[in-house]
Amino acid sequence: MMGVSDLLAVWNECQNVKPAWFIQQGVPPLALAGDPKPYSGLAVAVGNISMVGPHRFEFQSLLRGVDTFKRALIIPARDEFGSLVDLVAWIPGCDLASWSGRVCLLGEQWACAPSLGEPLRVFPSALEWLRAGRRGVVVIEPREAAILLVGVPNGLLVDDPAFGFELRRMMTIAPRIVIRSNAMGRAA
Description:
The chain is of the alpha/beta class. The protein is 26% helix and 26% strand. β10, α6 and β11 (177-179) form a beta-alpha-beta unit.
């Protein structure tokens, strides 16, 4: 089984992110630098990857005989208990992919965190999640995510009604989905 030292060894092969594009997209620099409190973690990085299955990727340095690699943002990922357990790759315009398959949500630690009566925010993309300071979740693997999300006590919060319908469609178990009230005004 892969441990944190394995994860860190591969992550250390990645390169620093050049933040200019992300800042232009409305991502706060602190979201690129590490996890929000109470977690302290690694910054996002950039690496060369190849997709090796649905929602799964491998690093170029670990594959032999594969010629097609893509540049991806590499985001350290935590499980529902807050432990650093995986790396997630994101190529703008593409789905997210997990390296070890140990997380089904980017931001999974927020799915089980006390929320003081607030619904859990779900974002349609990693870019929107980064804009929100890495708080909330993005679905990587819908079937597994549905099992984890159905138990969220105050439901799931989305900003866009169309994304709310898409989220319900992709889930095998339908959790309660709430649409942000100011989103309804924008949609009308």
